[in-house]
Design goal:
8 helices, 306 residues, 2 domains, 4-stranded antiparallel β-sheet, Alpha-Beta Plaits, alpha+beta, 7-stranded mixed β-sheet, Formiminotransferase-cyclodeaminase, Chain B, domain 1
Length: 306
């Protein structure tokens, strides 16, 4: 594909295999779009899909994604460790090749308008697509979650960019936008104390005066009986994995805890592995197939052979 844009929709379901299979099937055979990866977490009750393709292919893939998710996910009954405001919680577009950020911003606006018109889901534009500075950061939009969204949308400045000024009864609201490549990276601690994980997260995240371009929160993983620092690296060139690990290890030690493991959610660009020799903690689930350039090549080859 001469034009390649990545799309990483996050959906609020990570526990029911039949539904996850339906979601993956819905987007796996769209012309002009490739499903590169599917990563689910039972504790977070969340699945991250990674797609790559051209604008037309991704628009159709996201339309099909919403159709399945709205039919099968009910946020009034959904619970998990990860904050959520929508059945399809967030849909970011990232330029890879043959397209730039301007193209992705335009695509996010087209998709946001289409989702609101067809499915009645309110859509906020975020990141580089944001129409208000308060909506640039996803946590600002999602604060309070699905349960608080109805009252929040009545406040000044919180009318959605597209769709009704009230959340969908079961699917909530969505954030759609364009951004740089984000690395979703989690570190498990050797403790069950979530307060330690929360304190470590506060110490390292940008919003609390920690590392730039780092989002972090502390959660408890019931299935693994561990506290976790769950993170997004928004600019891996400025704040890479090695630097994050160093600070997490130090902050955990101050609170009597150690790092027990690390994991990647979704894919990682090859350039983000430049500091790999300095990693103090290996990524437990890492495989070469998780490098986005490798995944695109493998998926394209599989499509050609099928």
């Amino acid at each position: 594909m001469t034009e390649t844009i990545e799309c990483v929709p996050n959906v609020s379901e990570g526990r029911r295999p039949d539904i996850l299979d339906q979601i993956a099937d819905a987007v796996s055979d769209v012309p002009g779009a490739l499903l590169l990866d599917r990563s689910s977490d039972r504790d977070h009750n969340r699945t991250v899909l990674t797609l790559a393709g051209n604008r037309a292919g991704l628009k159709e893939a996201i339309r099909r994604l919403y159709a399945v998710c709205l039919a099968r996910i009910d946020l009034t009954a959904q619970r998990g460790a990860h904050p959520r405001m929508g059945a399809v919680d967030v849909v970011p577009f990232i330029p890879i090749s043959g397209a730039d950020m301007t193209d992705c911003i335009a695509l996010s606006r087209e998709v946001g308008a289409a989702v609101a018109a067809e499915f009645g889901v309110p859509v906020y534009l975020y990141a580089e697509s944001a129409t208000r500075e308060a909506r640039r950061l996803l946590p600002n939009i999602r604060k309070g979650g699905f349960e608080a969204m109805a009252s929040k949308m009545g406040l000044p400045g919180w009318k959605p960019d597209f769709g009704p000024n009230a959340p969908h009864a079961t699917a909530g609201v969505s954030a759609v936008g364009a951004r740089r490549f984000l690395i979703a990276y989690n570190i498990q601690l050797d403790t069950t104390d979530i307060e330690i994980a929360k304190a470590v997260a506060r110490a390292v995240r940008a919003s609390s005066g920690g590392l730039p371009y780092l989002q972090a929160m502390g959660v408890f993983l019931a299935d693994r009986n561990r506290a976790q620092v769950s993170m997004n690296l928004l600019n891996y060139e400025a704040t890479g994995i090695a630097l994050v690990q160093k600070h997490i290890i130090a902050e955990a030690a101050l609170r009597g805890a150690k790092v027990a493991g690390a994991e990647l959610v979704g894919l990682i660009p090859e350039a983000a592995l430049a500091d790999r020799a300095q990693w103090l903690v290996p990524i437990d689930n890492f495989a070469d197939a998780m490098v986005v350039e490798n995944a695109i090549a493998a998926a394209a080859e599989s499509r050609r052979c099928s």
